[in-house]
Structures are given as structure tokens and as C-alpha cells.
Amino acid sequence: MDTTPEAARAQPADEEGTAWWSLPPEEAVAEARSDGSRGLAAPEAAARLADVGPNALVSAPPPSAWRIALTQTTQLMTLMLIAVAVVSLLIGQVSTAIVVAILVLYNVISGTRQELKARRSVDALAKLQTPQARVLRDGSLRQVDATDLVPGDVVDLEAGDLVPADGRILRAANLETQESALTGESLPIAKGPTPNEAGTALADRTSMVFQNTSVTRGTARVVVVETGMRTQMGRIASMLTEVGSGKSPLQRELDSLTKVLGIIAWGAVLVIIVIGAVRGQSLTELLFLGTAVAISAIPTGLPVFVQSLLSWGASKLADQRAIVASLNDVETLGATSAICSDKTGTLTMNEMTVRTAWMGGDHFRVTGEGYSFDGRMLGATDEPVEAATLGLAISLPNDATVSTDGVVVGDPTEAALIVLGAKLGIDADAARRDFPRLAEVPFDSDYKFMATLQRMPVRGETRLVLLVKGAPDVVLGRCTTMLTTERDLVPVDADAATAELEDMSATGLRTLAFAARFVDDADEGRVAADPMSWVQELALIGLVGIVDPLRPEAKVAVEVAASAGIEVRMITGDHAVTAGAIGRELGLGAGAVSGADLKAMSDEELTRRLPDLHVFGRVTPDDKLRLVRLLQAQGEIVAMTGDAVNDAAAIKQADVGVAMGSGSEVTKQAAKLVLTDDNFSTLVHAVELGRIVYAKITAYLRFQMTQLISLILLFLAASAFQIADGVALFPTQVLFLNFFVTLFAVLGIAADAAPPATMQEPPRDPKLGIVNPHAVAEWLGYGAVIFLISLVPLVWGPDEPSADGPTASMTMAYVVVGLATVVSALLMRRSPESGLVPPIAAIAKFLVWPVVIIVLSTELGFLQQLLGTVSLTGWQWLECVVLLLFLVVAVEGDKWIRRLRATERERLAAGDGGAAGDAGAPFEVSAGRPRG
Fold this sequence. Notes:
This protein is an alpha+beta fold. It is built from 33 helices and 27 strands. It is found in: Cell membrane.
């Protein structure tokens, strides 16, 4: 292996700069221009600090609140609402202008507050800096602020420390670090000064320590090689800065709808003004008509309704222990089509557990999960194993402690063994006091085992026993015999043990071996003097398989997501074999790939293979970010879950970034959704609620656009053909309908029960959008029906064509439009399902009030004067009701035909393998999209 400084600089693994991990310690010190025995001189350290800056993570200054507010103000919908307010003032509708102005102000303030949160992720990351470090300066060890460290500083580390900067290990003793926050690897990593290959992946750089990871065992001396934004944590901070906060699908679709509304509204105003000008109407009359049309065409209640419904969704999510950062994220959840989930602590419990054991040629399974002492070790007949001696052999060669409430101090793997010992009846803390160590061989990554010497009871007598725990291949190589379940010694069956190890590894279990050597009392002094030389001619006790178990609810949640057409992928820092086994247990789709293989693929190849890849092992933060971006490039709405710093960039990039409540503050600040109960299934419930919210928004837009189109057509027809002197309805009548009648209809839609089988449909296609051919055809078709039935009284009403002022004909048209608004809310709350079938109680109680308001507005004198209405006869009311029946027949008949066609296509698909083709009518489109 070429480990010269030149080769290291020429062969970086995945970043620019020196491949420090590939340099021998002495060359790393030389490359850092330092001294391994004396460290840096104080003046040199000060000069370097001035040159490279403090060892701190920095972020760009947040954008100005005024600049954000200005951007919010110039959005098209806001400009349209401002225009409505101005027009309302011009026609003397001061109260309307005030209401709309308040809506504009609310939208601007709300949007500004959300934008100002964009930089919190990096700010939180910066707070993770270690406050103090033990650094060698001028040959003496001193405490300094971690922010004062510079490249070339020599730092001492011990168990319990947070690593203050990225460093190359110069020497180490039994060093292990917990790097799950950076790499996703759930177990501590054995570290040492031995160089790695230049192309070694981040998670496998055992000669390096990284900023803000923790030392779980041993001691080390390291030379600092990167500080601040050049550390691995700094690179994540840079990625967070580069990842923008894109608009949600709802925001993009409402932007599209706003453009359509703008074209329709101002186009209609222009047409009416041109027609009036050609006819010689006065400026006052033209302004009057243009104002009426503008008020009719702009849905002033749209922002309020959407914000209110999203707020309702956010409240419901909070009740289920899911907190959203922005109201728009509620709807985005409903569009989720792909979930990329971190494994450790998200799908799994992040509590190492012994799942199976092989002792003396027999198999045992271990019940219970995590660090709970509940559970037993069961034999082939499910009889509990009572083996105090075995429990001692497992518990004594460990340094970890586990409290009865599951609090662990020390190595997680050792904690799993302590728990197994407890299930065999051994209190590890008491056992270590009762049977103290007379000698020990501490664990070291070079020889991969630990040994302790103590006196302990064996077959009713106290014996001197050397207990050994370590890597199976190493321990097996030192065994000559093995203990049978009858506690007899027989020649070791290496083939059987190796086969068992292979079976355990194939199922994703991490393996450990236990062995013992029985020592004569006369040899105690010799063993104590040199215990390492006695770790041979051992008797194999057995093997254990350890796993980070799944959360009990995770598999069910994955199944529910699959039924909803959502593909779940697992992305983890664990090895691909382990990750693949967990994936199979979860029921994920086929295909597992390692981070190294992932890096070797081009974006084109990875995109092509993504449908067949569902488990990604040994990946880096860059890999996670790349996967999210590639899925988004394919049109997927991606949810990314995680709890560690290494997930933060991908979480921020995702359409729905999901952090666990127990995760790092960085991850929670980067996320759009925080699950306070750390429950993966809560995410699936959140997706369901997001779908319900979107269904209600779609129903509202179906209803609202139908009303707007009918009014625009009514005004255009009246102006073009001089019906009712060119004025279909007075502006005050339109305003009254918008602010009183429509209000209750909208409340009814919001209160309607959730559509059935919400999670049995595939995700909606975000490319289809709210404004799509089917939706526009539906709006136009239903709007045309309301236009025609409201036009009838204006053309064939009871009044003379030359009548001036309020007329019964215009009042009937006003009543038809108002009652059609009420009926439309009932009919259009669902599509293509019927709006006349139960449950309707929730919406019906809201629709009673607008009917009463419409009647009063035609009978009370002061309302007649305000709105320009007159009293109607019983027959005229009956005519209005009869006209409404045409709307009911048209809407329900259309939906009935679409349901029949959908059923026929399903029947044909079931009969001939899907050869039905695209036989559906242009009016028919699925609410979701098929997932391959």
C-alpha cells in the first residue's frame, strides 16, 4: 500500500484534500506541520488560528425580514387580493376592503415567519461544539476552548469525551468511538493508528476520529487535521446551507391555480369593459360592472380556507404526537410517494439485544427486547434455561452497566450481554463485586477479544476460571474443546460452529463467542502475571447472535404504507448484510446495496436500478442526499426520516423531512415533521391525515371554482346579450353570497367526514396538480349547469325586460345562485363518490344556515334595500327549487357514469390481465397514480 503523503493527497476518498487516514502516524504529524511529543508552540497556534479561523461551524446571515415580506407581497394571489381591496374602496365597500386587507397582512406575516426559520438547522449544528479540549502545547497538556483548536494541535482523548475536531490517531489503547450521529453505524467502532486505504469510506476510517462523535472506551492521542467547516460535521453544515427550502406541492399547485384565476378574472373584466365601451356606457357603469366581475372571479376566501384547514390538520397531527414546522407541510404529507427511512432508532429500537444462542451444539432463542430484563433464554422445547454458571460466564467479562430502567453506561454490545445474564438470573453488578477480577486482558482491536480471571462457582465448587469474550473467528481459533449442554468437555466442532456463525450472519445478526479455561490454583500467579499467554487451549462455551431489534409497530407501518402505494426504502450506516436482513424482516422490497457500490454507480445507472433497490447499507450523508435528490428528479414526493446529525442534510432536502423527538437538535431543526414519540407508524398516520386534508382542499376548489365559473359566465352573457340591462347581479349581492352563504358551505366541506379507504389508494401524482384536464372539465361542466339554471329567470323571468331597479327576475337569479352554492357543497364534497349518501350529518348542520340567510335576504326590508332584492311568491320559490333539480341530476349523473366506467375497467383488467387499456372517458381520471 502506498502511504506516502503525495499518494494520500492524490487519492482522496470522497472529498478534496489530504487522505489523512491513509498516512502513517508520523507522516500525518509531519504533513500537519506539528510535533507529536510537544504539540504546537503557542505563537504558532495563535498564528494558525488567525489564518484558518475558529473551530466553529458558521452559517450565512439569515435573510432580511423586510426582504422576505416584500417577496411575499409580490406573489400573484396577494397582488390579486390587493387589487380586490382597492376596487372595493372605489365602489364604496369599505368593510370588504378592510377584510381583504387583513387577509393580505396575515398571509404576508405568516409567510415571512416561515421563511425566517430556514437557517435554524445550521445554527443548531453550531451549538454542538465541545466547550473544552485537552491539548498539548509547548510540551505541556492544557485545557483550551475547543473553538481555539487549529490543524496541527495534538489532543488527548479518553472515554466519555466528545471529539472536538477531526483528527488522525497517533496512538490508542482500547479506543472505541460511537459514530452513529455521523455515519449511522449503530455499534461503537474500534479505532487505532493503523493506516487505511486512501479510498476507504468514511464509516470505515478506523484511523480517524471525527468532531462531535463520542469516545465510549479507551484513550488516544490524535493530531487535529481539520477544524470548523472543513470537518465532516462542517461538510454537513455546508450541505444544509446549500439545500434550499423548496415550495410544497400545494404551494406550487396553488401558484398554478392563481395564474389561471388571474387570466380568467381579468380576461372577463376586459371583455365586459370592451363590450360596454363599444355600447357607449359611462365610466361609472363600466367600473361598476368590472368590479362586480372581479369580486366574482377572485376567491377571496381561498387563502383563509386553506390556512384554516392546514391549521386543523396540524392540530390533529399534534394530537398524534407529530409536530409540523409549517402548515403547508400538512398537505405535503398526503402526497408522499416514497419514504427513505434511517434504520437505527427509527425502524429499530437502538438497543442491542441477544436474539439467539448456540451452546454445546444446541440452539436457544432469547425472548424480550432491548435493555429490559423481561425475557428468558428458551431451549428447543421452549423450556426456560436455568444456568447461573452460564450467566456468570457471559456477565463477568464485561464493563458496561444497565439499570433496571434501561439506562446504559458503556458499550451497547456489552449491555446486551448484561441483559442476557440477567435473563439467566445473574445481577452483573453484584457478580462483579462477589467475584472480583484477579487479572484481565482488556479488549483491543488488534487481537479482538477480552479476558478476565476470577474465582467463580463451577459445578458446586469454586474454581479459578479465565473467561474470554471476543470475535468468533479469533476465539474459535484458540479453542481445543467445547462444553456440551451436559457440561462435559468434548473436542471442539469447528465446522458446526462455523456453520452456525454463517447462519447467524446471513440473518443480519452480529456474533460473539465465549470460551473459558479452567486454571489450577497453583498457576494463579503465573496467569495474573501474563494473562495474555494463557488465552489458548480454551473450551468453547458458545456463540450469541445480537441484533438491534425492530420496533414492534414498524413492520405494520411498512405494510400500511405499501397498501397505500408508498415505497419504503431503508438507508443506514450498517453493513449491507445486516441491513438486508432487517429489510427482509420488515417486508421491504427486494434489493440491497452497499455504499461503496452506490458510489460506483452513475446517476443514470442508479436511477435505472432504483425500483429494485430498497435497502442501502454503509452509506454516507452524501449518499443519503443523493438518493433523495434522484427520487425527487423522478417526480417522487420523498419523506426522509432520521434522528442523527448525518441525516440532517437529506432530511432538509426531502419534501417531508421527518425527525425523531429523541434525535439531535440539528435534525429536528432541519425537519418539517418531528415525531415526538419516535414511532415510525406515526408517520404513516400523518400521511393519512395529509391525504384527508388534500381531499378536502380538492373538494373546496371543485366547489369554489364551479361557483366562480358560473358567475363569470352569467356576467359575460348578461353583458354580451344585454340581458337585464347588462347586469346579471348587483355587486352587493355577489359580496353577500361570498361572505355569508359561501362561508357556511366551506365550513361544511371542512367538517365533512374523511373519505373512505383513504390509505387504500395510490399516492396522487403531483405532476397532475390541482389544475388538470379532468378538474378543469369538471369545473367547467358543473359551472355551466349553474350558469344555465341561473340564466333562466333573467331571460324568462316574471319582469318586463325594460324594468328598472330591483326585479323579481334578478332576485330569482340571486336565489338560484345562492341555493346552488348550498347544494354544490353537498354534491361536490366527494368525487366520484355520491354526495347524497351518508354520512352527511356533519355537513348538513352547516348548510341549514345559508338557506335561512338566503330566505331572509329576500324578505327583510333592510336587506332588500341593501342587496337590491324583492319578495318572491310561493310559485317563484318553487321554480327556483325545480331549477336546482337539474344541478342535482347533472352532477350525480356524471359521477354515476364515471363510477360505472371505473368498475367496468376493473372487471376487464381482472379478466384479461389489464387489457382494458384507456377505455375511460376523458372526464374520468384516477385520484392517484399506479405504482410499479
